[in-house]
Amino acid sequence: MYQLNFPNGNVQTYNSQGELMTAARLLGGEAKLISGKTYAFVPKK
């Protein structure tokens, strides 16, 4: 499972890296790798 952490403290998990990246784009940002399978959501400015 891949984990996407949001600045407000929310966390979402995804079955694949592709799903995580697609979700981040749809939410108006991008995912930055923190470590392993954990990513941080970075909103686009």
Q: Spell out the helices and strands N to C.
A: EEHEE
**Count of DSSP H/I helices:** 1
Spatial shape: globular
Average the pLDDT over all residues and give the rounded result: 97
Strand order of the largest sheet: 2-1-4-3
Percent of residues in helices: 10-25%
Radius of gyration: 9 Å
Unreliable spans are none
Number of E-type strands: 4
Beta-strand share of residues: over 45%
Distance between the termini: 28 Å
| Major pleated sheet | 4 strands, mixed
Question: Top keywords for this entry?
Answer:
single chain; globular
Write a concise synopsis of the structure shown.
The protein has 45 residues and is of the alpha+beta class. It has one helix at residues 17-26, and strands at 2-5, 11-14, 29-35, 38-43.
Write a structural description.
- It is a single chain.
- With 45 residues, the protein is an alpha+beta fold.
- It has one helix and four strands; from the N terminus they run E-E-H-E-E.
- The chain has a four-stranded mixed β-sheet, with helices on one face.
- The chain is globular and about 25 Å long.
- The model has no long low-confidence stretch (mean pLDDT 97).
Topology:
Elements: E1 2-5, E2 11-14, H1 17-26, E3 29-35, E4 38-43
Parallel strand pairs: 1-4
Antiparallel strand pairs: 1-2, 3-4
